[in-house]
Task: structure prediction
Amino acid sequence: MLSLVLVAVALVAVTVTVHAVGLAVMLRAMRRWVPLPPTHLWPVTRLLISIVWCLILLHLVEISMWALFYLWWGCLPDTQAAFYFAGVTYTSIGYGDLVLAKPWRLFAPIEGLTGILMCGWSASFIFAVVLRIHQEYESTAPIRRQGETQHEHHA
Result:
């Protein structure tokens, strides 16, 4: 039992590490490709769609790690079952149509909690980006207002 707990601890640690590295890579890429946050609708929309897709891919990598673990240790009968179970467990959908055998049951709630935390971390990442966009928009508001005022005087 203790050895299974240690394996679960390691899986969580690897998942968190992958997520942290993925977010760091995304931040670095954003700083390089988008030095100033966009403040217009379509550039903001494009940025957020890109971030969401990168996060989905990151979560799929993490789900795949859990699935490969289940497959490697023979916890589930085949690849499709392992990926399906890992996906519904990580996302906390938990249909219950597939379950792990008794010695492995501990992994399902641990994976579910890990998935909730990683999704929450991703949501906070999106929130931080939106907050930064809003701050940039607010900091340029006086410049925009001044431009609108000058435009009105010249009209």
The chain is about 80% helix and 0% strand. The radius of gyration is 22 Å.
